[in-house]
Amino acid sequence: MGIGQGIFNPSPKTKEEAVEQLVWANRILAHEAIFDAFGHVSVRNPENNSTFFIARALAPEMVTKGDILELDLEGNVLTRTLALPYQERIIHAAIFRTRPDVHSVVHAHPLPVVTLSISEAPFRIVSHPAAIFYEGVPVFDEYDFISENPSGMLIQTKEDGDRVATKLGRSMAMLMWAHGCNVVGTSIPGAIRAVIALRDNAVIQLAAQQYGQVKSLTYDQARAATGTMRGEPDRAWNAWVARVKRSMPVD
Amino acid sequence: MGIGQGIFNPSPKTKEEAVEQLVWANRILAHEAIFDAFGHVSVRNPENNSTFFIARALAPEMVTKGDILELDLEGNVLTRTLALPYQERIIHAAIFRTRPDVHSVVHAHPLPVVTLSISEAPFRIVSHPAAIFYEGVPVFDEYDFISENPSGMLIQTKEDGDRVATKLGRSMAMLMWAHGCNVVGTSIPGAIRAVIALRDNAVIQLAAQQYGQVKSLTYDQARAATGTMRGEPDRAWNAWVARVKRSMPVD
Amino acid sequence: MGIGQGIFNPSPKTKEEAVEQLVWANRILAHEAIFDAFGHVSVRNPENNSTFFIARALAPEMVTKGDILELDLEGNVLTRTLALPYQERIIHAAIFRTRPDVHSVVHAHPLPVVTLSISEAPFRIVSHPAAIFYEGVPVFDEYDFISENPSGMLIQTKEDGDRVATKLGRSMAMLMWAHGCNVVGTSIPGAIRAVIALRDNAVIQLAAQQYGQVKSLTYDQARAATGTMRGEPDRAWNAWVARVKRSMPVD
Amino acid sequence: MGIGQGIFNPSPKTKEEAVEQLVWANRILAHEAIFDAFGHVSVRNPENNSTFFIARALAPEMVTKGDILELDLEGNVLTRTLALPYQERIIHAAIFRTRPDVHSVVHAHPLPVVTLSISEAPFRIVSHPAAIFYEGVPVFDEYDFISENPSGMLIQTKEDGDRVATKLGRSMAMLMWAHGCNVVGTSIPGAIRAVIALRDNAVIQLAAQQYGQVKSLTYDQARAATGTMRGEPDRAWNAWVARVKRSMPVD
Fold first, then answer.
1. What is the pLDDT of residues D192-233, one digit of tens each?
2. N or C, which end of chain C has less CB nearby within 10 Å?
3. Which tens digits make up the pLDDT trace of D103-112?
4. Least CA distance to D214: which residue of chain C?
5. Is the ipTM here above 0.90?
6. What are the contacts of A83-88 at 24+ separation with CB within 8 A?
7. Which pairing describes strands D104-108 and D139-140: parallel, antiparallel, or unpaired?
């Protein structure tokens, strides 16, 4: 039914392989409660570094292969289609344009992450999987609320996109004030693990500070901790796929 | 089985279309944990502005087309039936009477919303989807606990209903002290998105203030942010329906 | 398979009807997350006020009709069986002995309720359904930790049971320090609604006090609020049963 | 399909019986949300005290009998296989080596437990099932972040393992700073109940201290409370298995 078997693919080499993994990423992120009806995930084209794939404007849990569009790094839709793209594709395009190391981007709105974005608290690393964020997690709040046609809290122009990418810098994640987060990875499974780590770390940080001072990891500790993360991207992937097959069967 | 296919209908034009969408709204709101066994949702009659539809007194997840009643704007049941209506239909009637822009009303009791209603904290907008509440979210607490036959925490008379509608004013939502909320929309999908936004915003507001000061949106920011909300009411609707079909199959 | 159809029965008149409703109550309370693998619910024998029914020592979600035992009001098992009864049957027996108005008792350990039991905070009514607790919710902490054979945190003797029933007084619920709660009703559906109301009220109370002062209901307000609770015990019951049939199908 | 029927076995006497119970433990701990895609559980060989069983590096919910490896008490894999073992098998080996009373070890990362590990708060017993931790729950934080090849937050050498086992002492559980916990039992069902008790107790402790002072159990009270815990290991086990069969059916 246009979603494939979900067999783990450590390194998609063709468009078709990348698209199949992307379809599964949409459903996995919905099942893991990172996405609600909104949010989106993209992957760089393994055959052409200057394009990427992302679904048309659709709830992630509904995405099949036929819903995937190819876009250029300015956010233009290259696929011949009447389908509407996500407005926020600009974020994905801007990050792929400025970060050649990034092969997948997740834009999502988990409540614990929005919570952190509107608080006075700085992001702190308080859990092993979040050690990958040792470069920090900046907060973007440069929205346009006052121009004649304000973009409000959506990123809609190339200039908006550039500001987002500049704020991200070389970090693996950033928050967007009162809105959500952008999380990146060198692969789709990596980006999924990263956004789950960011969300869970936010849950732990909020809870722990209610006890008083929080014993978080320093930059050096977090960086050292990433050295022994063997990754095994298939371990989580196969469980995620099994859960989707059980709980979100395709008609 | 009396619930229809749930195909997205951007603008119901007939009684039958409105009733089918209302049946799905009942099940969706139960599945999204806005309703427990209690709570109710209504829709204005697209063929007659002075009547509306609402289920008989039944748990929302059990509602089928045969359970829908037609009521007038004073809350009288027009459908010939022995079925018992919700006592709180008075709230729906009063709002439809005073707010011609409103085509759907949700009355619900999500715990985070009840929490806010009994606190000292004012409602604050801390998430993008809640920007629609830029006119504010007033709290109703004018219950009758002391007359000879006190209505307690239920709204049962036309006068009670008028007080509720007056408190709502031109807002898109209001809280009811120690009880729940009334949320309105220009359509059923809009009212569903609004009550989810209100609930999620309450979760975020509570959590964020544990960190200290909360950086919420101003009136002007929130109003500007609604300008670029494209809506796409089908995006969430289709996912909600798919979830109900998976998890709440009709016998 | 020994559980019956779960058709709502407003007033069981025979042993068989009471036992069938009790079997469903076990599964409902497990599904509604009031019970984990532990906890128990009982019902007074409608044919004989001096006996009651309760399952043998079994996880509630596994209970079928064949697992129900008849006990007297001292907690002696009258059913001829080798099956082990719950140790805490003493609590049920003591309450049925001293409270003729009570026809069902739930003993459970929901985490928000245990939280309140070990805190400095008094129980406060902060939600409409909890208005039924206007007589207060006392906390029992008279455990025996120091005798030669300490009963620890279990209630095992008739004297222990008497102390529990005395603490309950004429309330509809009581907490047990660091352990859980006993909630009573004039019927099984009433006891289920009461324990859900107690749990949800504890969630709201904890959350709201993080904002500052909590605007809770007074004794008079809560008492007045119960006057207009029409009850409609079938409304929630039918939804609870439908959920069990969907999510906990019997093999 | 290589997982067996899950029939309760109070005391596995053979390798085969131990392995079958271990497979179920993997799935149960995943279903009970103790494990996400990571975490592991082991059991001592009932036929040979100096070896133990644990799955190959696999998400726990995917484990079948063919995935179980036999290891010695230094963490060497004895099973002839190309399969990769868990890096953290060293923790299990070290505990089995120093604690002859222990027959099962769970290593997991529940968020409430990680929260406690990074806080200033000492572990406190605030719930009946957690009374088994009366010997205390120490926190391990002796990670290597600064050697030439830092092990970061993983335990990888025999010396690391010895330090972990020393920290555990004669307790039934320990925390690992910003990482998770190790929980032990005299049997697999006992270790499962213990880790659930530890997680739930952490949820309650965090919540209760938001009210102010927490009335926790003393050492003497907790120790006395364990005396009357009859256990009935089959009661929870049969419910856990039924849940796995319903929600995680094997293909």
1. 999 999 999 999 999 999 999 999 999 999 999 997 776 677
2. C
3. 999 999 999 9
4. C119
5. yes
6. A83/A56, A83/A57, A84/A56, A84/A57, A84/B232, A85/A54, A85/A56, A85/A57, A86/A40, A86/A54, A86/A55, A86/A56, A86/A57, A87/A57, A87/A154, A87/A156, A87/B228, A87/B230, A88/A40, A88/A154, A88/A155
7. unpaired
The rounded distance, in Å, linking the Cα atoms of D34 and C104 is 34
- Domain count of the fold of chain A: 1
Q: Which of C207, C225, C232 sits opposite B115 (nearest CB)?
A: C207
The answer to whether the CB of D174 falls within 8 A of the CB of D137 is yes
Residue C162 lies in a domain: yes
| Overall pTM > 0.90 | yes
Q: Is D176 part of a structural domain of the chain?
A: yes
Name the stretches of chain C with pLDDT < 50.
none
Determine contact, residues C185/C197, Cβ cutoff 8 Å: no
Residue B77 lies in a domain: yes
For residue D230, what is the domain's CATH number? 3.40.225.10
Burial (CB < 10 A; 0-12, 13-18, 19+), residue B162, is middle
Q: Looking at A173-240, which runs of residues are DSSP E strands? A: 173-176, 180-185
Do the domain assignments include residue C1?
no
Say yes or no for a CB contact (<8 Å) between D126 and C114.
yes
Residue C141 burial by Cβ neighbours in a 10 Å radius (0-12, 13-18, 19+): middle
Q: How far is A117 from chain D (nearest CA, A)?
A: 20
- As given in the structure block, the two tokens for residue C229 are 């609770």
- Please report, for residues A118, B219, D43, D232, the alpha-carbon distance to residue A34 in angstroms, rounded to integers and kept in the order given: 18, 29, 34, 39
Contact B224 A87 (CB under 8 A): no
* Domain ranges, residue B202: 15-242
Task: Please list the ranges in chain B whose pLDDT falls under 50.
Answer: none
B157 min Cα distance to partner chain A (Å): 39
Structure tokens that stand for A239 in this block = 């469980």
